[in-house]
Design goal:
Elements lengths: L4 E10 L2 E4 L2 E5 L5 H11 L12 H14 L4 H4 L5 E7 L4 H11 L5 H4 L6 H10 L5 E5 L5 H13 L5 E10 L2 E11 L5 E2 L2 H8 L3
Parallel strand pairs: 4-5, 4-6
Antiparallel strand pairs: 1-2, 1-7, 1-8, 2-3, 6-7
């Protein structure tokens, strides 16, 4: 690899709190996860009406990506084809799948059916942030930092990306959890992009 890949920024959403680069920026333990996502959207004054049509998984990942990227100016530094996104989760789109299956008993809901694949989240983020590079979604029982960092580093090694959003986004049984980070080359004073550092951040809260 010609240049070292580094973790330039990260964001954690867990237990109704949001941490950006080690700093807690929002918390409300009194709300359900669904209400917390709405409260965070309002708190950070995000203006994206389509958010209200998304399922809970997409809201979770979209919100984290929005906050992670809001000051990064990726579209000024990179072409859309140079930006990638790779994430994983444990429950796929099961939260919405269950709701869609229930709707079949009366009338199948097209608005639910749209979200019965987890990679729809990738599409929502790509549309919002003009991302046209490598995109992948994986399903594991737990976050696999070794697989994910190896996969990302291979993308940089083969020059398929110059920057990449990576991490974990899951919503099931009323619980939202997400961890997204931005991997780049040429970033000084940043943690090296390896499984040890990624997993350490993921376990942060």
């Amino acid at each position: 690899m010609s240049k070292q890949v580094s973790i330039s920024s990260y964001l954690l959403l867990r237990n109704n709190q949001i941490v950006v680069d080690g700093q807690k920026v929002f918390e409300n333990k009194d709300l359900s996860s669904t209400d917390f996502l709405q409260a965070a959207y309002d708190h950070f004054q995000i203006n994206y009406p389509k958010f209200f049509k998304m399922d809970n998984l997409c809201k979770t990942g979209f919100l984290v990506a929005e906050l992670l990227l809001r000051n990064q100016k990726l579209n000024e530094k990179f072409q859309p084809e140079e930006i990638g996104i790779v994430f994983s989760n444990a429950n796929s789109s099961l939260d919405t799948d269950i709701k869609y299956e229930a709707s079949i008993a009366t009338a199948p809901s097209p608005s639910l059916f749209v979200y019965t694949l987890p990679n729809v989240l990738i599409g929502e983020i790509c549309i919002r942030h003009r991302i046209k590079g490598e995109a992948a979604c994986f399903v594991f029982d737990i976050f696999d930092a070794i697989f994910q960092t190896d996969y990302l580093n291979s993308l940089f090694e083969t020059e398929k990306v110059k920057t990449c959003i990576s991490g974990w986004a899951d919503y099931y049984n009323g619980k939202a959890e997400a961890f997204f980070y931005l991997a780049e080359t040429g970033k000084e004073n940043s943690d090296i992009h390896n499984s040890l550092n990624v997993n350490k951040i993921f376990q942060g809260i």
